[in-house]
Amino acid sequence: MALKAGTDTRHAGVHDLNAAQVFAQESLWHEQAVAQGRDPLAWRLQHLQGRAQDLARQVAERAQWPEAEQDLPASQPDANGRLHGRGFATAQLQTLDASGAQRVVWSAWVAEVAVHPQTGAIEVTRVVAGHDSQQLHAAQGATLRPEIQWQEQDPQLLANARQLLGTASAFDDWKDAHGLVPRAQQTDLASPATPQSGLIQQGRLALDGVETLPAAAAIANAVAHATGVRLREVPFDSEQLRLSLTSADAAAAPVRQRPWGWWAAGVAAVSGIAAMAWPLKPALPLTSGPDVTLYSAQAIERGRLVAAAGDCVVCHTAPGGAANAGGFGLETPFGTIYSTNITPDNETGIGRWSYPAFERAMRQGIHQDGRQLYPAFPYTAFAKLSDGDLQALYGYLMSQAPVKAQAPQTQLAFPYNLRPAMAGWNALFHDATPFKPDPARTPEWNRGAYLVEGAGHCAACHSPRNALGAEKTGIHYLGGGEAEGWSAPALNQLAEGKRPWTRDTLYQYLRTGFSPQHGVAAGPMAPVIHGLAELPDSDLRAITTYLLELAPSTAQPAAAPGKSVAAAAPAAPAAVIQPAAPPVYAQHVNGERIYQNACAVCHEAGSGPTLFGVKPLLALNTNVHAATPDNLVQVILNGIQTPANEALGHMPGFRDSLDDAQILDLIAYLRERFAPEEKAWPHETKAISKLRASAAAH
To answer: Which member of 59, 194, 361, 527 lies 3.0 to 4.6 Å from 314 by CB, making a disulfide possible if both were Cys?
Structure first.
């Protein structure tokens, strides 16, 4: 029980041998505890002394390890069919201090895993680690009190731990994001003479300092807790685990019981639906709030990026209000729903929420006090976030400054004010299953899918909804929707049609908010661009890959399984010639006059210098070619007061200088001149009046 099978231990370095020894010893302690019916942690503590025992107790307390937990051979599957387990391991390292004297350093780990029995895939969902460098500090003249350093949900620790799984999880990896400091750049006082070499080196166990020395044993013990299967080789083999679970299930199930398997599965499914549909949910206890010092700077930065990808601040900030303090009114067909305060204020925010309460709200749409949340809060998408991203997001939100602000109460008309009815809605339309990557697709595609379907919740605006307000799926997914009076265009055919997007044009639009071939981001899309600006280029490229491969494209070949589309459509020409104005019909004379007086200076090719940023050419503007004039009317009425990018410049609104009839004349002229191949829009002002009134209400 040590190195990977086939490794020649005669050539193994001291780091490999140390790690292998810890892996074997700590796995054996766990097996002995299970054999005697003892809790593995209690059993291990019984055989530790002094500083090692103190460190182990403190790590266990921070990990909230139950004192009386019995380590059963296998856990019960959760609603998503995963088996969960918790494992503990400790390690001792003899090293040299600055003076050359030999010192002893202890470390301890608690690892939590989720195992998919059907595939054998292992997820490391949480890590709490600590190391005690007392002797090192004492030798340097420090006090004699234990000097314990902590890491919890540290991105690099999690990434290193996941290397032990053979294949690293890619879809929730933020390692390329700017602002995340690689762990190799941090000072490790516990092992100053130990190189940072990584946990896997040329297929063998290696040492990544004392703090990661117990990693392999802690994960193996957690897997044993979850499944009852002992993995004895590193990196862990998911296929070996799957086969072990399959054979164990077959051996445990007598032949005479197999005909009832369908009945048991049906009962489990019905029980899960009943639990979701039951309208009365318990309140989860309030706490004194988390100790945010448990979260490393990297974990909090990861949470900040998750929040940026999800645009939390956009919907949770009222006009003129403090960031994330709530009070923003979301207009829905059922009434106005006000966002809540998500700052860590103890009275009006989430300061006393436990992580389980936060996770329940994000995955199931249930408030800490048991109330059903309306899906205007897109928990239907946030449920797809990984455990690591939810933990990081919780840490980030709890690390921000609390703001005391009571958001307005949402009061919908009957019957939509009956929140318990949302339990039935969830049973019909909500799938709380976290995102599962498609093994036939590339890591980039899976990353893009994870961001679009999860944190980005793009379908909330870009998918149509049914009569009960649920997003339509299947062929309707990302088929176009509405948001705050704006039409959200379809995203499932971007690579097709008369005005196809290419990889470069879509990436440019997501990065800057402007594409010369399609126009400027405005309305609700502008703040989305602000959030995307925080993400690395690799994430925007991943989103681009996913969206352009949603449907077969005539402009570029569809990706084969496991492949990305390698080539984009030909680049647009460096300069686009504005088409000459066609003869103006008599009914468009007023529209042409308004255009020349108010619009041409910024939008007409050859009309002079660019005055306010970019010069969007209307012949290439998506809104002029759209099926409805709603977005064009919105821009004319309200302008672009907060551009997606300051370099784009502002556009003034004309709601106070043009009446509905004048706007109707203007859009009719724009359609006739710049999109003559498209069908004319209805010549009436009702829609314009409605959009004007809706904007005024905000």
So the answer is: 527
Q: Model confidence over 533-546: pLDDT tens digits?
A: 999 999 999 999 99
Spatial distance between the Cα atoms of 20 and 211, rounded to a whole number of angstroms: 15
Task: Write out the two tokens for 129.
Answer: 């680690």
Sign of the C-alpha dihedral, residues 376, 380, 381, 385? positive
What whole-number distance in Å separates Cα of residue 594 and Cα of residue 599?
8
Q: Strand locations in 13-55, DSSP E?
A: none
Report the pLDDT value the prediction gives residue 578, as an integer from 0 to 100: 52
Task: Report long-range pairs for 645-652 (Cβ below 8 Å, ≥24 apart).
Answer: 645/512, 645/513, 645/514, 645/529, 645/533, 647/512, 647/613, 647/614, 648/512, 648/513, 648/514, 648/520, 648/613, 648/614, 649/611, 649/612, 649/613, 649/614, 650/612, 650/613, 651/602, 651/612
Average the pLDDT over each of 143-157, 168-182, 552-566, 653-667 and give the range with the smallest value: 552-566
In tens, the pLDDT along 408-466 reads 999 888 888 888 888 889 999 999 999 988 878 888 999 999 999 999 999 999 999 99
* Cβ atoms within 10 Å, residue 614: 18
Of residues 298 and 341, the one with the higher pLDDT is 341
Q: Count other Cβ atoms within 10 Å, centred on residue 76.
A: 7
**pLDDT above 70: percentage of residues in the chain:** 71
Please tell me whether the overall predicted TM-score, pTM, comes out greater than 0.70 for this model.
Answer: no
Query: Residue range 333-346: average pLDDT?
Result: 93
* Residue 487, φ and ψ in degrees, nearest 5: -90, 125
Q: How far apart are CA 447 and CA 541, in angstroms?
A: 10
659-680 residue pLDDT tens: 888 888 888 888 888 888 888 8
Q: Is 651 left (phi over 0), alpha (psi -120 to 50) or beta?
A: beta
Is residue 279 within 8 A of residue 421, CB to CB? The reply is yes
DSSP per-residue string spanning 183-220: GGGS--TT-TT-----SEETTEE---TGGGTTHHHHHH
Rounded-to-integer distance, Cα 202 and Cα 205, Å: 8
Looking at the predicted structure, is the pLDDT value of residue 225 above 70? yes
Question: Which backbone phi and psi does 617 adopt, to 5 degrees?
Answer: -85, 125
Residue (of 291, 353, 695) closest to 524 by Cα position: 695
